[in-house]
Specification:
Blueprint lengths: L1 H22 L1 H22 L14 H4 L35 H9 L9 E3 L1 H11 L1 H23 L3 E15 L2 E17 L5 E16 L5 E14 L10 H64 L5 H36 L7 E3 L2 E3 L8 H11 L1 H24 L2 E12 L15 E9 L5 H65 L6 H35 L21 E3 L14
Helix pairs in contact: 2-6, 2-7, 5-6, 5-7, 6-7, 7-8, 7-10, 7-12, 9-11, 10-11, 11-12
Length: about 600
């Protein structure tokens, strides 16, 4: 009876050992997260970008399983909500004649932002996008998955311990005699991969059987089997080819770090472009309101001339018609701007139903002095995407070597040793250092049929040629992109200088008309107002294009650096300034970058 209690206690201990890891699951996940973040930080530092390190999660919900439900309604056929037409309700609006004057007042009257509106500068927009944007989060997780893959490979190359416990009740009936026994089987082992191929392992298999009921008392039985094994390849599978998975995982981490940093630079330019497009749209709206004010003065003057009999009525109607066209255009511009703001909020991860104000702020970088050949050489050396493409050629060459290794004959050195004991498992185990059985030898696999392996070698060679050509093409494409970025700066500067002249011409034209008002017809006046408005709008767009062209040139040549707080990390000699306030089109005032 005492032995039976001990056996049941032993089983209970094993069950506790099995259940305990479940209670520590949350902490184990946190350890994994910490290890993954450490590898992300180390890899990012290795490429010189320690600031761009993603965290494994911005929320704790996945630890607690809040995103999962215990049951899955409609597992085989998920429900679909699609009402029939007769179940839908549509209420038509009553047709009414709108008051045109009221509509004009509503359109032309500028509405201020709500008091609780959030103000966004360029840096704040980038910061919000980094912390909340879905696009940025996906890029972080893509990089993170590479760190988790590396953790798996590193764990594979560390000592791996396993323990399998099997408690069971056995019933046996022989010649009318029924026996019941409690059996406990425990398989404990450890294995370790060797650096240049092969594996060493140790395994302990213990079995204990305690009789629970029997017509004939037979006592208890136990056994213990200890086995050691060693397997070392000498030809096929020997060398660094054995570590291919770990080597590639480590290299993929570096590729991921480069790709993530390259994404951050592209992402910054995209946010910059969207933000400055909103600034330009505000300037266009402001210019259109000024255009309406000038057209209103023309309409009032022409009405006065018609009233005094000095002007025919249709001339005044021409001015009124032009003003109405511009008012309608203003309404369209405002609706387009509201939609653009909503899309911008969606992109940076801000609540689309929360009011936001885009501050009038525009980057003001001085155009660089460019040496074409030096710029192309910088792109070849510094661009992260080119470095990834170049290193993929190295990977392909290594795959050719690995494929050739598989063609070789197999010659594995092996050694095994085992010891079988029959101890009293429940009352203690006494072991000695003798081995019951052992074997040492070599297993040779003669390469009689290696057709598949030889075909794989040829495939690896073809893939190497493809990847090598892709790298050459990527270099040529990078050179073209750099030249295009240089021409884009020149073109933007040229357009900006022309718009400055157009504004001067339009203002001189307006001044000439104001100096001799009787010489100009209403069409001349409205055309002059339109020309000035177009020139001011084109200059606002040209200012944006210059800054985008400069940033794109920096990115194409591998010189753009962006901090985690959304600011440009200026290289030596570059001064980062902003145009701020309502006078974006005015003469720029240099504001040093903080």
């Amino acid at each position: 009876m005492f032995s039976r209690c001990k056996s049941i206690t032993s089983v209970t201990i094993y069950l506790v050992v099995l259940v305990t890891p479940l209670a520590c699951e949350e902490e184990q996940f946190r350890v994994i997260d910490k290890n993954a973040e450490e590898r992300l930080r180390t890899t990012s530092e290795s490429i010189g970008e320690p600031s761009s390190v993603p965290t494994i999660s911005k929320s704790e919900s996945h630890y607690k399983g809040e995103n999962f439900t215990p049951d899955y309604p409609g597992l085989n056929q998920p429900p679909t909500v699609n009402p029939k037409p007769e179940e839908l309700k549509y209420q038509a609006r009553e047709r009414a004649v709108l008051d045109a004057d009221k509509v004009i007042r509503e359109v032309t009257m500028p509405a201020g932002p709500p008091e609780n509106a959030e103000h966004f500068t360029l840096a704040k927009s980038v910061q919000c996008a980094i912390s909340k944007s879905l696009e940025y989060r996906v890029a972080e997780e893509t990089y993170l998955l590479l760190a988790l893959d590396l953790l798996i490979q590193q764990h594979i190359w560390s000592p791996r311990i396993f323990d399998k416990v099997t408690p069971q009740v056995q019933g046996l009936s022989v010649n009318g005699t029924h026996s019941t026994a409690l059996q406990l089987v425990n398989d404990l082992g450890v294995s370790q991969k060797l650096p240049y191929g092969g594996e060493i392992s140790a395994d302990i298999l213990s079995q204990a059987s305690q009789e629970l009921s029997s017509a004939v008392q037979t006592g208890q039985a136990s056994s213990l089997d200890i086995a050691l094994s060693l397997n070392i390849p000498l030809l096929r599978g020997a060398g660094l080819v054995a570590q291919e998975g770990l080597i590639q995982a480590k290299r993929n981490m570096v590729y991921g770090a480069r790709a993530f940093e390259d994404f951050r630079r592209r992402f910054y330019i995209a946010i910059f472009s969207d933000f400055h497009e909103l600034v330009v749209q505000q300037e266009v709206i402001a210019n259109t309101r000024s255009q309406i004010d000038r057209l209103r003065l023309i309409v009032e003057r022409e009405d006065a001339l018609v009233t005094s009999g000095r002007q025919v009525a249709f001339q005044a109607d021409l001015a009124k018609q032009r003003a109405l066209f511009v008012i309608d255009h203003l309404s369209s511009l405002e609706e387009t701007y509201k939609l653009a703001v909503d899309r911008f909020k969606l992109r940076i991860g801000y609540e689309t139903d929360s009011p936001a104000v885009i501050d009038l702020e525009m980057l003001d970088l001085d155009p660089p002095v460019i040496d074409n050949q030096r710029a192309i050489a910088s792109a070849f050396e510094w661009r992260l995407d080119l470095q990834n493409t170049r290193d993929l050629v190295v990977d392909a060459r290594r795959q050719v070597d690995n494929a050739r290794n598989s063609v070789m004959a197999g010659a594995n050195l092996f050694a095994t040793a085992s010891m079988l004991k029959n101890p009293d498992f429940f009352n203690g185990i006494q072991l000695d250092d003798s081995f019951g059985n052992y074997a040492v030898g070599m297993a040779i696999d003669v390469p009689l049929d290696r057709t598949i392996e030889e075909v794989n070698v040829r495939k690896a060679q073809v893939l190497l040629e493809q990847i090598d050509r892709k790298y050459v093409f990527a270099r040529d494409a990078a050179a073209v992109e750099v030249r295009q970025a240089i021409r884009r700066i020149d073109r933007a500067l040229y357009t900006l200088s022309l718009q400055d002249k157009n504004i001067d011409i339009a203002r001189n034209r307006q001044s000439s008309i104001d100096a001799a008002p009787d010489r100009a017809s209403p069409r001349d006046r409205t055309d002059a107002v339109d020309a000035l408005n177009s020139a001011e709008n084109d200059k606002a767009r040209a200012l944006r294009e210059v800054q985008i062209a400069i940033l794109e040139y920096l990115r194409q040549t591998g010189q753009l650096r962006v901090s985690d707080d959304g600011e440009i990390m200026a290289p030596d000699g570059m001064q980062v300034r902003y145009r701020r306030g309502s006078g974006i089109l005015a003469q720029p005032v240099g504001i040093p970058h903080a």
